[in-house]
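Field log, afternoon session.

UNIT: design team B
ACTIVITY: writing a sequence onto a fixed backbone
BACKBONE:
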């Protein structure tokens, strides 16, 4: 297989940084992007091309950056929409602006980057779009509504996008990590608003303590997740000879919580089936 050209958002840390290492190790080309270029200078030393890209920039500015990216190797084969952050806080404690910022990065930023790359993929009738979603794209945990909302939104948008673009020869993959050891929950990256509302005080303080304990103690290995994602895109390793699903949950926690949610949903459909199905207008 000829080397692929990958474009990754959010390479200054976590999965993004690991993608660059793993892609180069497999002999592919990578254009690493980050909103602060100096934070990925070390990746250039390793052989990556680097570009500044804040996914909350205007559509025209992102279009220009993607055009520059395509011109580096003459094409992009795989886009990895990885950049995001997590906003913690209850619905009442978060300000409207907090909600907008969460969606501006995790949803609208991702849409803008994808819109910029899609004409190139359509023109070539090929290409692969990887979206780093989350267990939070399936389950809304307490004080996690903004983040879960952004990932639920992404799931629906990408499911529709897959239906629109699969017939054009473009592949789509939703990676759904459970808890992996990156800097997502570290103080510089995570935004958290402890509750000021007495009714939520106990839950909120337990949540903050739990997240502090979880930071850098998550069970998931980012390298394993990235290597599996590369296998899925390239049809190698664990993916060799297998049909690739749209969604790939990863991690024991993710597998268990998804199963519980699916079983609960099936139980409701069964127990309430006669009510659920008896809603048509009488003919
Ligand atoms: N780790 C987990 O347990 C987990 C679980 C489920 C899903 N995820 C998802 O995995 C993806 C990567 O996160 P991570 O776990 O690797 O966390 P991370 O270590 O905090 O990395 C997040 C990256 O996103 C970048 N970023 C944030 N806002 C950006 C913007 N506006 N423009 C460009 N880059 C931006 C950050 O760059 P700066 O350095 O500039 O802030 C950073 O490089 C995210 O989509 C996250 O939601 C992670």
């Amino acid at each position: 297989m000829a080397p692929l050209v990958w474009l990754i958002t959010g390479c200054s840390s976590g999965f993004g940084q690991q993608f660059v290492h793993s892609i180069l190790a497999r002999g592919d080309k990578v254009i690493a992007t980050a909103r602060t270029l100096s934070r990925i200078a070390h990746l250039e030393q390793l052989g990556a091309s680097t570009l500044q890209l804040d996914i909350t920039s205007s559509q025209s500015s992102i279009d220009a950056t993607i055009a520059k990216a395509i011109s580096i190797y003459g094409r992009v084969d795989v886009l990895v929409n990885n950049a995001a952050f997590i906003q913690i806080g209850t619905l009442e404690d978060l300000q409207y602006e907090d909600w907008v910022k969460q969606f501006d990065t995790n949803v609208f930023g991702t849409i803008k980057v994808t819109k910029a790359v899609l004409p190139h993929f359509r023109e070539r009738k090929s290409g692969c779009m990887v979206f780093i979603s989350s267990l939070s794209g399936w389950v809304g945990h307490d004080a996690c509504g903004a983040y879960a909302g952004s990932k639920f939104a992404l799931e629906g948008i990408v499911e529709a996008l897959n239906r629109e673009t699969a017939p054009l020869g473009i592949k789509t993959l939703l990676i759904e990590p459970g808890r992996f050891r990156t800097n997502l929950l570290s103080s510089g990256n995570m935004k958290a608003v402890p509750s000021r509302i007495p009714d939520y005080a106990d839950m909120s303080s337990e949540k903050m303590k739990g997240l502090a304990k979880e930071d850098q103690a998550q069970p998931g290995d980012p390298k394993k997740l990235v290597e599996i994602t590369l296998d899925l895109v390239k049809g190698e390793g664990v993916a060799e000879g297998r049909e690739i699903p749209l969604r790939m949950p990863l991690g024991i926690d993710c597998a268990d919580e998804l199963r519980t949610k699916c079983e609960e949903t099936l139980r409701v459909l069964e127990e309430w089936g006669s009510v659920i199905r008896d809603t048509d207008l009488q003919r």
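LOG NOTE: Residues 9-10, 12-16, 34-36, 39, 54-56, 82-85, 105, 109, 132, 134, 177, 179-180, 182-184, 189, 218 surround NAP (CB under 6 Å).
NEXT ACTIVITY: expression trials, pending approval
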